[in-house]
Amino acid sequence: MALPKRIIKETERLMAEPVPGISAVPHEDNLRYFDVTIDGPSQSPYEQGTFKLELFLPDDYPMTPPKVRFLTKIYHPNIDKLGRICLDVLKSNWSPALQIRTILLSIQALLGAPNPDDPLANDVAKRWKEDQNAAIQTARDWTTQYAKK
Amino acid sequence: MCILPVFPTQQELREMAKEAAAKGVLWKDTSFSTVLRDSIVDVVRRWWLLRILAWESWLSFLFPNVARLPVSQVLHHDPPLVPLVPPASSAAGLSTTTTTPPLTRKRKSLADEQTKSTLTTETAQAPPKKKVQRKVKAPAKPAEEPPSILTPKTELSLMDSEEEFNSPASSDDEPMVDMDSDLSDQDAGTCIDSELDFDDYDEGDMGFESQGNITKKQKLPYEVDFKIYSPEDIQRFQDNEIDEVKHLLGQPPQNSAILLRRFRWNRERLLEKYMEKQMEVLDEAGLKEDESGSSRIQKVPGFVCDICVSDEDDLDTFAMKCGHRFCIECYKHYLATKIKDEGEAARIRCPGQDCNRIVDSKSLDMLVEEDLHARYHELLTRTYVDDLDNLKWCPAPNCKYAVDCKVKNRELSRIVPTVHCDCGHAFCFGCALSEHQPAPCGLVKRWMKKCEDDSETANWISANTKECPKCGSTIEKNGGCNHMTCRKCRNEFCWMCMGVWSEHGTSWYNCNRFEEKSGHDARDAQAKSRQSLERYLHYYNRYANHEQSAKLDKDIYLKTEKKMTQLQTTAGMSWIEVQFLEAASQALQRCRQTLKWTYAFAFYLARNNKTEIFEDNQKDLEMAVENLSEMFEKPVDQLSGLRVEMVDKTSYCNRRRIILLSDTAENLKAGEWEFNVDFN
């Protein structure tokens, strides 16, 4: 199946004008499959960390959202231990006008602003609410341990 | 005997007119027109009277035994005296009939006579004239009255009833019958005309009467009011609702529809909110008009679609009022995905990022491919039924109907709302399970859970087995005497008192040592569980028995059909004569379904004065059902002889069922039953 024009254009643009702190490189054998890295935002426990993700554009993209998953272990209330992400724009609030770059920016923003009220990893969210400082410290520890640059 | 119409004189007519005016009947009493009209009427009537008298006397002389009525009717069918129409009130009427300038009295009456004689010579009225008459009649009703007020009372009642019959809510059909006879006896004015009208009324009346019969039919205490709606009905309701709200809100229909769906078709809440914070409501529903550009397909130069990044110049694009413009192909694809894959309909949002505007149905109809229209509207209809509490889909497979029932959820402990769908499926409106009268939904849920639970197995074991008092092995007594010897430890004990057998002395096989200490504790511990278990099993066995029979419904039905054909061939009975088997089969199925649930009901029922009546009713029904069932199973050659008996039994079963259900439903409503569980 030929690659839709939209995906080609998006990929070109991602290469030509990359977003600061984010990189997305398609696999040579499958142009719908991207290796993604996101830098932890400053002022967050994930600062100084670089997180690897995988991103896949399904057949009916952009009608359906891309599938994104963290490959690097991360301590975050909205990301579970399999790396799955709880983010509205990846589910119900997806709009075909959104793009890979906007989605990755949203994920980066999620790292900067965890939302323990809408958790995916319950244990993390619970700790986050009960003892935020300790939770943030764990997140920081995990970042240095697993997401070292 | 000859019935003659009595014509009022001019003086009488005027008096009647005044009377009518005093009673509030429209009546135009202007000097010239009234005098002219009345005098014409007078002359015409007198002339006719003479002719009729002559005819009638001749006829009665020739055919003394023939009823005169039809003749009078034919003769008296004066078309509603055209000149009587007051010039002011019926310009339309005059224009369609022969217009006569206000000439002298004589000439006018002559002209009148001519028209009349031409009319009467035609035996039946020619269709176009009929039309003219009717046309005249409608606007000039008051003017028509004077000639036909022969017996003022009757005429007034005619007027009344006419209005009544026009309104569907009319309930008084007695005067109508009287009036009919009065008219045929005496009416000399608009007889045929009114007869024509009466045909219409008769039809309406019949419909009305049958309707009345339905409402008059006594509603049994266990029945609830419900209506069945087809998908078309539901569509119509939505359209009506949208139509009404459209006017109230001053919004176009598609916006009104979006708002209504958003507010789950709660019109009051929508209106209230809308009046309070119009902008907020519109904004939340995605209807805020903040950017220009109406919903239509257009080509925009220099446009690049955000979805497919196409930038051809002749690209068809579409945007709703929110201004999020995409190429038409992407829009279509987007909507198709939403409808087909995600099953969305009422709340599809604009594909634009962070845009909350809902795609309205007009835009959808324009964009969605033909093959998805049906699916889209089906989904829309579905949301309507899902959103409203008083509507539910019939749970039967492939059934398209929805049921409207006003029973609220909180009433379910008092009412068992059983509804019968047009597809033949009877189900409970409260829980959508198949009918389970007389047990209320809460009990049914509990009962089903209890029956499914494996805990009963353990209970059964503890109730039907005993442990050896010495080694504790589980023993089930499968026959024989009470002198038990444990296989394992060879302990000998009495099954009844669980005491050591040696203590029994010589009273073997007849344990009367009830107070014996050794067996006391063992008995006590088991007694409780055994009792409750036996109680459960008692009800469960009966419940399961009837359920099993209910599951064999289909077999029974097929068997019935076979038997019916057999009977027709062997016993020489006609089709109509063997229908009793069908009726019996249906009664059996229905009664078994009821009986089944009476046992679940009884299991939870705490004893009070009412339970005895309930149990008697239950017993009666069960015995009747078993009797009928026994007869039903008889070989075909005996069936024909049992016909009368079976018919009786069938109706007896049905009656007993109604009695049982009525009794339980009444007491349930009144809160007379006491249950040993809290099922709410």
UniProtKB/TrEMBL annotation, chain A:
Gene Ontology molecular function: ATP binding; ubiquitin conjugating enzyme activity
Top-level lineage group: Eukaryota
Major enzyme class: transferase
Keywords, ordered alphabetically: ATP-binding, Nucleotide-binding, Transferase, Ubl conjugation pathway
Presence of keyword Nucleotide-binding: yes
Domain called UBC core: residue spans: 2-148
A Pfam family hit: UQ_con
Active-site residue numbers: C86 (glycyl thioester intermediate)
InterPro entries the UniProt entry points to: UBC, UBQ-conjugating_AS, UBQ-conjugating_enzyme/RWD
Family (UniProt): Belongs to the ubiquitin-conjugating enzyme family.
Name of the protein: E2 ubiquitin-conjugating enzyme
Native source species: Tothia fuscella
TrEMBL record, chain B:
PROSITE patterns with a match to the protein in the record: TRIAD, ZF_RING_1, ZF_RING_2
EC number(s) stated in the UniProt entry for this protein: 2.3.2.31
Positions of the UniProt region annotated as Disordered: 85-176
InterPro entries the UniProt entry points to: Ariadne (IPR045840), ARIH1-like_UBL (IPR048962), E3_UB_ligase_RBR (IPR031127), IBR_dom (IPR002867), TRIAD_supradom (IPR044066), Znf_C3HC4_RING-type (IPR018957), Znf_RING (IPR001841), Znf_RING/FYVE/PHD (IPR013083)
Acidic residues: bias regions: 160-176
Biased composition regions of type Low complexity, renumbered to the chain: 87-103
Domain RING-type residue range list: 301-515, 305-351
Keywords: Metal-binding, Repeat, Transferase, Ubl conjugation pathway, Zinc, Zinc-finger
UniProt GO MF annotations: ubiquitin protein ligase activity; zinc ion binding
Reaction equations catalysed: [E2 ubiquitin-conjugating enzyme]-S-ubiquitinyl-L-cysteine + [acceptor protein]-L-lysine = [E2 ubiquitin-conjugating enzyme]-L-cysteine + [acceptor protein]-N(6)-ubiquitinyl-L-lysine
SUPFAM superfamilies: RING/U-box
Residue ranges with Basic residues bias: 128-138
Origin: domain of life: Eukaryota
Coiled coil: none
GO biological process: protein ubiquitination
Keyword Transferase listed: yes
Protein name: RBR-type E3 ubiquitin transferase
Organism name: Tothia fuscella
